[in-house]
Specification:
89 residues, mainly beta, 5-stranded antiparallel β-sheet, elongated
Length: 89
């Protein structure tokens, strides 16, 4: 069956790292400030945590809401801080 309406043109989207275009006066437009992803994690290297699937472990690195954890069984995993709970020492 043939198309009865014309196709709409696709919108062009800017990539995340694209810089804004210059203004008509030749001035550089103000770039948007990059905001850190979400709130601070509240975890530090050395904190004891518990994960519902992987069990207990120790935080070895913290990066933008993700924790690298060394679990007691020897596995090292990177997980989102939402899924772990802090344990008492």
């Amino acid at each position: 069956m043939p198309r009865t309406t014309a196709k709409k043109p696709l919108k062009k989207s800017r990539s995340k790292n694209a810089k804004p275009a210059a203004t008509a006066a030749g001035e550089q437009a103000h770039p948007q400030e990059e905001h850190p992803s979400g709130k601070a994690t509240g975890y530090a290297v050395g904190d004891l945590v518990s994960h519902p699937m992987f069990g207990d472990g120790t935080v070895t690195a913290v990066e933008a809401g993700k924790l690298t954890i060394a679990f007691k069984d020897g596995r090292v995993k990177q997980v989102v801080d939402y899924y772990v709970k802090r344990r008492q020492r």
